[in-house]
Design goal:
CATH superfamily of the domain at 615-819: Exocyst complex component Sec6, C-terminal domain
Organism: Candida theae
InterPro entries: EXOC3/Sec6, EXOC3/Sec6_C
Largest sheet: 2 strands, antiparallel
Pfam family, one: Sec6
Structural class: mainly alpha
CATH class of the domain at 615-819: Mainly Alpha
Coiled coil: 98-136
Strand content: under 5%
CATH architecture of the domain at 615-819: Orthogonal Bundle
Order of helices and strands: HHHHHHHHHHHHEEHHHHHHHHHHHHH
Radius of gyration: 56 Å
GO biological process, one term: exocyst localization
Distance between the termini: 167 Å
């Protein structure tokens, strides 16, 4: 008996009185046993039925496997028969091919007969669909997909015929091409329909016409897939023309409708931009103030249109590049036109605005000048600007040269406020403001205006090196003008002295020719008519020299006072030296030109003095001292001539030019006076100086009188401050009296040299003493050989003890006297 039964019996019989219930317990157990038997029998029957069913299914499976084996055996037998019966196989294949060909010919015959009719119907459908879309952008082009289907079959059919005809004769090829030629009109019509859809997409989507977009994109995607298939086949060299191939699916080459889609969109956007450009054709800079539509269009494409298109098309970036390229090109064209500074500023302002906008749109700032190429673009801009600047400068040089050489009218007048340095009665310096009507060259300020315009534009670009390069190029152009004028001055001086040279009045051995850079070819002025003289050297040369010097002096002052500090503030300190050096070189070149001009004017004045200077230190000169009036004396005549020149020059020359001219002239005049006088003694009519001669006939008295006349005739032409230089230079003539008449020259000359000459002429040439030594009756060259080293030693010791003066007198620094 099981533990469960025992447990249950134990639960029923717990006390002795429970034994009386054994019959009831026995009956209860009998019932339970009967119930269990019934359940067991039912379960067993179910399991047996399932087993029988499974065995039946297994029998059926075995039967099917046998059938499959039989079929495989038949397949093997068929294969063996086909391999062993090749002749029959080829025959079957040929029969099949012939049957296909017959069916293809029949189909081709039917399609050829209906080709024109079907083509005309398709053309009408395309035209109708195009017209409906042009009338209403909300038109969903419901027929475009079926039109594309029919259009594709027509093109495939035409491709098939044309490809097949390539194996035929030329005549038959012509017939085939003539037959398929109407398809080209169908292609044009379909392309027109597709183009109209493409250019209408943005506006259609704005009107919620999404159906047209999806249909067009579907067509483009399908065409792109077919193009990819044909490309793969061509790359794998698997393209073979099978005459039996279904021509409805035949393609011989790519149709590139994806490229068509993007090209038409590009053309549409470009036309939109070009329309805006055309609107501002007369005010090109105005376009930058009216580009809100462009930003709105890009925003719409990025936010709404691009997400509706395939992601790999990157349509937003594609559209942005179209507008960017157009805007970039337009900007570069604008820059190449050399717009004024305010226009460049507007371009740069919009460039920043567009960069900020593109950063919001794409996440990265983009410059319409080109982020990566901005420096290169600005270099190109600089190159264009500098090239134009150089071209303009070359043209200006030619104009200025012609104007200067022809001298057809008086120079232009320019009101000029200048500051003149002066000293009062107590020798205290102060400044005077003086206004004069200065002679200048026409439009002499134009180069400065050009500098300001271009430099301001370059400064606003934000690139220091661009500004520096513009300034350096302008300075180089400025220096080129200066160098041209230096050549012009030389040529004008050569022409002038060809006609008006007075060297003929000097002695044959005169060394005055060294005053001129070139030895001119002198003609006899008396043999020339006024017209011939004018053709060689036109009148007005001194006035034009003054105008030339004034123009560059005023320009140089403007550069120093207005431009140097202004543009240094606009660049990094690393570039300050470059800017300073560029401007300094320009100003230095103009100062050099002005010095050349002052030298040229001085030479012209001195040339006019030769008639009187040829009498210096001669018997006639000594006899002038016996005359009761000084008016007829050579020195008086010379001072009168000089005063006439200087007074006129002072009326139209700016103070700095006049001051420099006077200094250069006085230096040259005094040296010429001394040189010519002593040459007359040694080689001409003059007699050597007799130091024992006294009275008005003495050499000292005579040179003293000349110094007095020269100073007296010229002092009113100088300010109190500048009159000191006049006094110093004239003293070089007066000192000659002491040197020419002092006793014991070997002892007194060193003393005069140290205490009277060097304190005035700090760097005086020893040739100044040499000329006196050779011209004194009581001295000779042997004494000079002894005296010269003594003077040089005194000069060296004097320079060691005494510092150079702040305003040195340069008159005798370069004095030369060759014996």
């Amino acid at each position: 008996m099981s533990d469960l039964a025992l447990s249950k019996i134990g639960g029923l019989i717990k006390a002795p009185e429970d034994l009386s219930k054994l019959d009831d317990i026995r009956q209860q157990f009998a019932k339970e046993k009967s119930t269990v038997d019934i359940k067991l029998s039912t379960t067993t029957d179910s399991q047996i039925a399932s087993i029988n069913h499974n065995l039946a299914e297994l029998n059926r499976t075995i039967s099917r496997v046998e059938e499959i084996k039989a079929d495989i055996s038949k397949f093997h037998n068929t294969y063996d028969e086909s391999v062993t019966s090749v002749k029959d196989y080829d025959l079957i294949r040929k029969m099949i091919s012939i049957n296909q060909f017959m069916e293809q010919v029949t189909s081709l015959t039917q399609d050829i007969r209906q080709f024109r009719k079907n083509l005309e119907r398709l053309n009408r459908e395309i035209a109708d669909e195009t017209a409906m879309l042009k009338e209403d952008l909300r038109y969903p082009v419901p027929n475009i997909l079926i039109i594309h289907y029919r259009y594709t079959r027509v093109r495939n059919f035409a491709d098939y015929l044309e490809k097949y005809s390539q194996s035929l004769s030329d005549d038959l090829q012509s017939l085939v091409y003539g037959f398929t030629s109407p398809v080209r009109e169908t292609i044009r019509l379909f392309d027109e329909l597709l183009n109209e859809c493409i250019i209408s997409i943005t506006e259609a989507v704005k009107d919620d016409n999404f159906e047209m977009l999806y249909k067009v994109v579907g067509i483009v995607l399908w065409e792109d897939k077919e193009d990819t298939k044909i490309s793969v086949m061509q790359n794998l060299d698997l393209v073979r023309h099978n005459v039996n191939k279904d021509y409805n699916d035949f393609r011989s080459k790519r149709r590139n409708y994806k490229k068509f889609f993007f090209d038409k969109f590009k053309l549409f956007f470009e036309d939109t931009f070009n329309s805006c450009v055309e609107h501002y054709q007369y005010e090109k800079i105005g376009l930058y103030g009216d580009l809100q539509w462009l930003e709105e269009e890009l925003t719409f494409v990025y936010k709404y249109l691009s997400p509706l298109l395939p992601k790999d098309w990157q349509f937003g970036a594609f559209t942005e590049k179209i507008f960017y390229d157009k805007l970039h090109q337009y900007t570069m064209d604008m820059i190449n036109l050399e717009p004024p500074a305010e226009d460049i500023l507007q371009i740069l302002s919009y460039d920043k605005k567009f960069a900020d906008y593109s950063k919001q749109l794409e996440g990265s700032a983009k410059s319409i000048i080109g982020a990566d190429l901005k420096e290169t673009v600005l270099d190109d801009y600089l190159r264009n600007i500098t090239n134009k600047m150089n071209e303009w400068n070359d043209s200006l040089i030619k104009q200025e040269t012609t104007y200067f050489s022809e001298r057809l009218k008086a120079p232009d007048i320019y009101p000029y406020d200048q500051t003149v340095e002066e000293v009062d009665n107590n020798n205290v310096p102060f400044e005077l403001s003086v206004n004069i009507s200065a002679f200048v060259l026409p439009d002499f300020k134009t180069p400065l205006n050009m500098l300001k315009q271009q430099a301001d534009v370059a400064a606003e670009s934000g690139y220091s090196k661009i500004l520096v390069a513009v300034i350096e190029n302008w300075c180089n152009a400025y220096i080129a003008r200066v160098e041209n004028f230096q050549v012009v001055v030389d040529e004008e001086m050569d022409r002038y002295f060809t006609v008006f040279s007075n060297e003929k009045f000097l002695i044959k051995e005169s060394k005055m020719k060294r005053l001129f850079k070139k030895r001119p070819t002198v003609v006899n002025i008396d043999e020339l008519s006024p017209e011939e003289q004018a053709n060689i050297s036109r009148p007005g040369i001194v006035e034009y020299f003054g105008a030339l010097a004034n123009s560059f002096e005023i320009s140089g002052e403007s550069i120093t006072s207005r431009f140097v500090d202004t543009y240094k503030e606009k660049v990094h300190t690393n570039y300050h030296v470059k800017i300073s050096q560029a401007f300094e070189s320009a100003v230095a070149s103009s100062n050099s030109l002005n010095s050349d001009v002052c030298i040229a004017i001085s030479n012209i004045i001195i040339n006019d003095l030769y008639v009187e200077m040829c009498k210096l230190f001669t018997k006639q000169w000594l006899e002038d001292g016996m005359k009761q009036t000084g008016d007829a004396m050579s020195a008086a005549i010379m001072s009168e001539t000089i005063a006439e020149y200087l007074s006129e020059l002072r009326s139209y020359c700016v103070y700095t030019i006049y001051q420099n001219l006077c200094q250069i002239f006085l230096d040259k005049f005094v040296c010429a006076y001394i040189k010519i006088g002593f040459e007359n003694i040694l080689y001409g009519d003059g007699k050597k100086i007799n130091p024992e001669t006294q009275g008005y006939k003495s050499f000292a008295s005579r040179v003293g009188k000349d110094a007095e006349l020269i100073f007296g005739g010229l002092q009113d032409l100088f300010t109190d401050k500048d009159r000191q230089y006049l006094l110093s230079t004239v003293s070089a003539i007066e000192i000659l009296g002491d040197l020419g008449t002092s006793p014991n020259p070997m002892e007194t000359f060193p003393s005069i040299w140290e205490h009277h000459i060097l304190p005035v002429f700090y760097n005086c040439s020893t040739d100044y003493i040499k000329a006196v030594v050779y011209s004194r009756k009581d001295m000779d060259k042997n004494q000079w050989k002894i005296l010269e080293p003594v003077l040089k030693d005194i000069k060296a010791r004097y320079h060691e003890k005494v510092a150079p003066p702040e305003s040195p007198v340069l008159t005798l620094d370069d004095f030369e006297f060759n014996v």
